[in-house]
């Protein structure tokens, strides 16, 4: 909602490089009135001190994403508050599209699609979440926003790295449950708002790229270091939302799902058999701890935010695509920096004489870069090899990219 401004909360802990990359991409948003709120460890906040007049910085260094998000929420002055992870980067059109459904007063939540590590394939589209913490596929139109009702037993699942809420009902509901330190934290909010009669929008064209950076819970290859918080938060969630039901069947399904996940990682070489045994033990320890974890009373959050702090320089801007072969990559990157200085969104396309699959990434310098073979596939559902002339392939990729960010040719 442009006239009121939109707040964006980024939580980060001990991942300063990823945070800087995320902030760089957020500066390219085509929404003309946004504010950024960073809840991060003190070292990261100190490193961002030069941005203190443009970004609201909140030092926080505890492994509790719900508590961190609540801190950001109480500092947010926008009518709509969005959330994104520090290891994600949004397309330039992301927040404008994600905020648009809130023009309908019935909507209290919105979520978009998430692309994975190769920057092209989807990591997440849409799903329902139920009162047992289990999700099921939600089939939606991939070209238009759709509105969905739920209740206390089922709601649309918002994805933590790509979600937004109307601030007033989220504050009234108590925000995020601090007893859910990491897992199912969004699901609690989704069910709470749905039970109050609010609608959730699924906005496929509001897209972010999520890379799964390493953390204290997982390695860079996504192999977990511990499942304790998954277990603890699941136990807390069931106590909150399914207290009248026998939790045993849901816990059995959780154990089986996590075991399958670990065995898959063992087969592909990311884990060893002792790793699997150890990790399953951490899951059990977490379930035991979560069954006894104190459940704080959830009441309305204090509602007295500081004034809206608009981030300068956002809004619509032109884009350009710089295309060439891999051996001209250095020149293309130098040209991209020139385009950035001129205020344009720059996308590089480096197409080699082969059939390598394509990858898209956002560079910390501020430009997007797609690389792969002239005959390789970008969308993974396409053929592994397809003959193409350079200009024809260029037009096809520009058409795909242009759905989400401004493009041109240079």
UniProtKB/TrEMBL annotation:
Segments crossing the lipid bilayer: none
InterPro entries: Nucleotide-diphossugar_trans
Repressor as UniProt keyword: no
Keyword Glycosyltransferase appears in the UniProt entry: yes
Protein name according to UniProt: Glycosyltransferase like family 2
Family membership: Belongs to the glycosyltransferase 2 family.
Cross-referenced Pfam families: Glyco_tranf_2_3 (PF13641)
GO molecular function terms attached to this record: glycosyltransferase activity
Keywords carried by this UniProt record: Glycosyltransferase, Transferase
Superkingdom in the source lineage: Bacteria
Coiled coil: none
UniProt-listed CDD domains: CESA_like
Species name: Allgaiera indica
